[in-house]
Amino acid sequence: MDVFAYGTLMFASVWERVAGPAPASVPATLWGYERRGVHGEDYPVVVRGAPSATVSGRVFRDVDDGLLARLDAYEGPCYRRVREPLRFENETAAAWVYVLRERFRSMATTTDWDPETFKANRLAAYLATINAGG
């Protein structure tokens, strides 16, 4: 199974803290969604957007059931895991994506979440909040 990461899990240090060694990954693009910040938090969510909207991230290849269970636990009840088409490595294929549940939409800000800003300003502090192994 493939899993698309668009936020904190794009960073190897976060993935490893949450779920252990990361499987191989490649850059990927998700269509029809927007990446948003979360009020008072360092992580983002994705919500449905215009059909032309895109979110860049990474697709992690060959994720097994045990790893998927750890990711489900990390993402928690505010997200639902759905299969969505992605573009990567000159192909289009479906992958699991963690999408904000509509009933939690008020958590999302109206502004984009920027991975580079997170990396530069918040990654170290965020890592300190994660228990090793999930």
Give an overview of the whole structure.
The chain has four helices and seven strands, in the order E-H-E-E-E-E-H-E-E-H-H. It has 134 residues and is of the alpha+beta class. The strands form two sheets. It has a five-stranded mixed β-barrel. A two-stranded antiparallel ribbon has the order 3-4. The longest helix is centred in the middle third of the chain and has 11 residues. The model has no long low-confidence stretch (mean pLDDT 94).
Net shape = globular
Share in helix: 10-25%
Number of strands: 7
Q: What fraction of the residues are assigned to beta strands by DSSP?
A: 35-45%
Number of H- or I-type helical stretches: 4
Cα-to-Cα separation, first versus last residue: 20 Å
Class inferred from helices and paired strands: alpha+beta
Task: Report the order of strands and helices.
Answer: EHEEEEHEEHH
What are the segments in which pLDDT stays under 50 over at least 5 consecutive residues? Answer: none
Q: What is the radius of gyration?
A: 14 Å
Task: Compute the average pLDDT.
Answer: 94
For the biggest sheet, the summary is: 5 strands, mixed, barrel
